[in-house]
Amino acid sequence: MANYGMAFDYKLCINCHACEVACKEENGIDLGAKNHRLWIQEETKVSGDFWNLDRDKVEFMQMQCQECQDAPCMAACPNGAIYRDNNGIVRLHKDLCDLTRACMSACPYNARYVDEKNHVTDKCIFCADTRLARGETTTACQITCPAKLRYFGNLDDPESEISKVLSSRKHFTLKPEKKTKPKLFYLE
Amino acid sequence: MNFIKKIIPMKDFTLKSLMTFEKTPLNILMFILTIGLLGAFGWGVIEYLIHSHHAYNVTREHPWGLLIAMYIFFVVSSTGLCIVGSLGDVFGFKDYMAMSKRAILGSIVTILAGFAVIAFEIGHPVRMLIYNVLSPGLTSAIWWMGTLYGIYLTFMIIEFIFLMRNDMKNARIFGLTGLLVGLAAHSNLGGVFGFLNARTISNGVFYPTYFILTAFITGIYLTYLMYGFRYKMNFPEEIKKGLIGLAKIQTLLLAILMFFETWKMMTGIYGGMPGRADVVEHILHSGGFVYGEVLCGMLIPFVVMLTTKWKSINLYVYASFIGMIGIFFMRYDLVHDTQVKPLQMMKLTEYQLPPKWIEYFPSAAEFAIGFGAIGIFFMLYYFGQKMFDLDGGDH
Ligand code: SF4
Ligand code: SF4
Fold first, then answer.
1. What is the rounded CA–CA span in Å between residue B173 and residue B177?
2. Residues B212, B187: contact at Cβ < 8 Å?
3. Does A106 sit within 8 Å of B197, measured CB to CB?
4. A97 belongs to a structural domain
5. Do A72 and B122 touch (CB under 8 A)?
6. CATH code of A176's domain
7. B128: closest CA among A122, A73, A120, A113?
8. By Cβ atoms counted within 10 A, which residue in A51, A113, B30, B301 is the most buried?
9. How far, in Å, are B108, B137, B157 from residue B154 at the CA level?
10. Domain encompassing residue A33
């Protein structure tokens, strides 16, 4: 099976939020729900006007579950409801979730939220129940991004686009000091 | 009823005698307070059942709120009373023998009040009970805490039964086991916060040990309050002896706590670690910490006990009341401070603006359920007193 991960050419982001809209559409998230599954974080205030944005610093970061290989959310769950599926994606047995929200407190990336419809916690799962389940090999955010900055694929396949980009470009992960070993990479 | 009385000796009571009490102003006040708190609890539960978690002000950034704090408040009280109760019947200190029954009853009713709060905090409490057994999360401190507290409650009840039967040998065996399980459960509750890799301020060894220390302190405060109420400040000699001893222990424990806290804050600030130093500074400027935790929870009772040289028991009852207010702030702040710093993803610029703190203030339903559970404690304790002979434990 695959070992899915994602890489971001994050400096290319134009903050259009098309990825968020696509994700909401694909996964049935209510419009207006903030920071559900994925979001763009503005790291500093944007200065300058529309034609002349002061963009010498990077301001937009793509945020979502970092698919930790050593996942604190999984360790914190009292019911063993969080597991890793055979595509390497951190998933949730929905009927085991008791909403103690221990996973939300434990996640260093603020990736989890309460799914109000199903009364469980949730997060990005790389469209595993929708697109991947249909046999597709792309995620909704990736296929929609106009800047084409998202790379998604099998990290164990040296021929995949993501493996190639990771072997040829410098990259980093978020909060490496937490030793969570994320499978989301940000390209320099 | 006779069958139950064979297992656990009870006083003779009727429904009417359970419902009647001496009409002193204090008793009437307690009655009105209890009814009010129970009413608030009921209202809060209805709000929760109608609006689910929307009745609470908890958010994604601040998923744990007042109800978690109140749960901790009650279970800390329970562990504390268990420690105080064990001094006599488990460790054999004569001065505290007479207190065991009351303290152990207190430890049972406080944990029941705690369970009543947590049942309305967790989204699916029944699922939790089922999957706690069917699919245990052994890496989770919450699993260990919950499971051990369940076992602890069982042992406490068995110990109480043996105490009432004046079977001190068995009470001692179950008391010791219950105490050890309770301490393990309680330090695991500290571990729930201590394991949080994501929250630098709480991560580490501090909370698991601090929880045990503050449990003992809470137990002593509550013992004072229970006896102050029981004897209306006219303490019999054998109780006086025990209370004086407890005041001495309390002064020492408070001194240790202040020492711990001082070093926590010093290493926090001067250690300079992001996520810890800035949060500690924030805590030091908050009223809850300064007036609640330090002044009410530690300094006032400490100074009162030290300056009166452990002689003014009546004064200590009032000091213990102030102390319990401080203990509430300790629980509330520990939950809030853990989550107060936003989870910043990365540092992109060398000099960042100071972070905005995450704000949280409990909703009316949270107040109603959290504080309303104190009414559950009052009610259960009242019935316990009426049904069991809690005095005369000087075996
Ligand atoms: S980012 Fe958070 S939710 Fe995702 S695997 Fe890591 S700890 Fe779990
Ligand atoms: S779709 Fe692409 S460019 Fe637009 S906000 Fe999302 S990541 Fe940025």
1. 6
2. yes
3. yes
4. yes
5. no
6. 3.30.70.20
7. A120
8. B301
9. 9, 22, 5
10. 4-45+55-187
Position A50 in a domain: no
Q: Which amino acid would we find at residue B298? A: M
Residues having CB closer than 6 A to ligand 2 are: A 13-19, 40, 62, 144-147, 149
A177 assigned to some structural domain: yes
Residue ranges of domains in chain B, CATH in brackets: 23-343+354-387 (1.20.1630.10)
* Chain B residues touching residue A110 (CB < 8 angstroms): 60-61, 342-343
Q: pLDDT of chain B along its 395 residues, tens only? A: 677 888 888 888 888 888 888 888 899 999 999 999 999 999 999 999 999 889 999 998 899 999 999 999 999 999 999 999 999 989 989 889 989 999 999 999 999 999 999 999 998 989 988 998 899 999 999 999 999 999 999 999 999 999 999 999 999 999 999 999 999 999 999 999 999 999 999 999 999 999 999 999 999 999 999 999 999 888 998 899 999 999 999 999 999 999 999 999 999 999 988 888 989 999 999 999 999 999 999 999 999 999 998 888 999 999 999 999 999 999 999 999 999 988 876 555 444 555 678 999 999 999 999 999 999 999 999 999 999 988 865 44
Ligand 1 touching residue A67 (CB < 6 A): yes
Please report residues of B whose CB lies closer than 8 A to that of A100: 122-123, 128, 142
Determine how many CB atoms are found less than 10 A away from the CB of residue B1.
Answer: 7
Total structural domains in chain A?
1
Between chains, do B136 and A107 touch, taking CB under 8 Å as contact? no
Classify residue A62 as left (phi > 0), alpha (psi -120 to 50) or beta: beta
Q: Give the count of Cβ contacts less than 8 A between chain A and B.
A: 125
